[in-house]
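Worked Example 4.2. Consider the chain below.
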Amino acid sequence: MSPLDRAPRIARVQEDRKGGFGLIVLAAIPVTAFLLGCWQVQRLTWKTDLIARFEDRIVRDPLPLPPTIDPGAIHDFDYRRVYATGRLRHDQEMLIGPRIHDGKDGYLVITPLERGRDQSKILMNRGWIAREKKDQNERRDGLPTGEVTVAGLLREPWKKNIFTPQNIPEKGQFYFPDVQMMAEWTESTPVWIEATLRPNLSTAIDFESKGIPMGRYPEVNLRNNHTQYIFTWWSLSLATTFMFYMFMRKRPSSIQARVRRSKEWQ
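Applying the procedure from the previous section yields the following structure tokens:
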């Protein structure tokens, strides 16, 4: 029988709804990636200005710490060099760890500094010690007595992430510098100072062997990876834009699709 002798059939051509949804998603990816790249440009400007402001503070001459300090004002003095005089309360010492320094395991030594009369007691991050120097009897040289003057950076408290364990002060287990909690535990003001040090190799070896805490290097250690994020998002936007263009170029129109289906029915 000839195809012309066949009875005509009516077929309904349905639009590919799934294909339409996928097309919308494919078109949204480059737009979203471009907008995220623009947002990272704003973040880069903010982070660059923030680092510049901190670096300006860190090069200024150190200020004497006032007798009383408003914790709410520390934000405006973050990374400011200060010094204070008082007596280190080694009996209230707290060790935060583990902390890695040059590939070695150890702890950060946090000691309250009890200042003179009518002056607030503050928290002093004296620096890093090796794990084997955890016991105070193993580092008598690192426990100065009497009145001392300490210098360092005034720092704003950090925010704890969800992966860090909770501190257990009753057991002497500290994993994160929770300034507020540690201040309440030692009856101190929630003010945190990080001791600074510019050690050479011989000084670092001597400090580590004697268990003398090694302070941090006086620098702004904020990460600024927003340039990489800008490149990543805009590269993704460009790549997906090209993919969308190629897809639309090769995608048949609805009329072409119907003609193709009608030929298949013959």
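The chain has a mean pLDDT of 87. Residues 19 and 87 are 73 Å apart (CA to CA). Compare this with Example 4.1 before moving on.
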